[in-house]
Design brief:
By secondary structure, this protein is α/β, with parallel strands linked by helices. Helix content is about 40%, strand content about 15%. Strands 1-2-3-4-5-6-7-8 form an 8-stranded parallel beta barrel, surrounded by 5 helices. The structure holds glyceraldehyde-3-phosphate. The site of glyceraldehyde-3-phosphate has 14 residues, from strand 8. Its EC number is 5.3.1.1.
Amino acid sequence: MRHPLIAGNWKMYNNVSETMRFFDDFIKLVENLEGVEIAIFPPFTSLWEAAKKTAGTKIKIGAQNVHWEEKGAFTGEISPNMLKEIPCEYVIIGHSERRQHFAESDETVNKKVRAVLKHGIKPVICVGENLKQREENLTLKVVLPQVRKALADVELLSGEEIVFAYEPIWAIGTGKVATPEDAQEVIKSIRKEIETLYNKNIAENIRILYGGSVKPDNIKALMQERDIDGVLVGGASVDPQSFYKICAYKEQGVE
Ligand SMILES: O=C[C@H](O)COP(=O)(O)O
């Protein structure tokens, strides 16, 4: 049984004082929420304070990026053991904004995945197609190779140590959410691909999230799909009230 994960990727929003204010409200709001795992991915500068503030609560902390080397002359980069020290339980790898603006490739994604797993940090690996590819019916031809390349030479014990996020690029920050049925179809195919690469057990254990314009009013329909195990939320995760409403989707009557 996969435990639902609701993840908030703040991108380049919320400095340290805004982070503290967010948690002052959010920790109280989610105090009594059961049956869902919550993770927040603040910018690097807010990670320490976020981790201190959420210690002993049900909120997990993750980073938005990582380098694959342990240490070295890599100006501006952060290593897996630096994230572990904070401690970060998760790290987002291969977000489409990093692929698009910072030359992240399937090869660097794979290096990062292998590096963080050695430190017991769970990667949230992002995959997804752009609008042109979707319109040309190329979604699976784009997404499944991204999955395979991310997992090249990756040994998995149970599947619980990694998470995938299917984020159609055309749905990110646009207000155009994929239909739950379309998201389910792609996510089901990702799970099938993982089964071919590993086995059924691992495929059934891996959580696969949907991301792209998730809001309090569309979360319920998404979470009703069999293979959607949670969401990766951008814009709507920066405000404590709206992110709380997404985390509390079960109160809208989702089984
Ligand atoms: O990482 C989150 C995704 O890019 C989704 O962002 P969004 O919810 O603002 O569309």
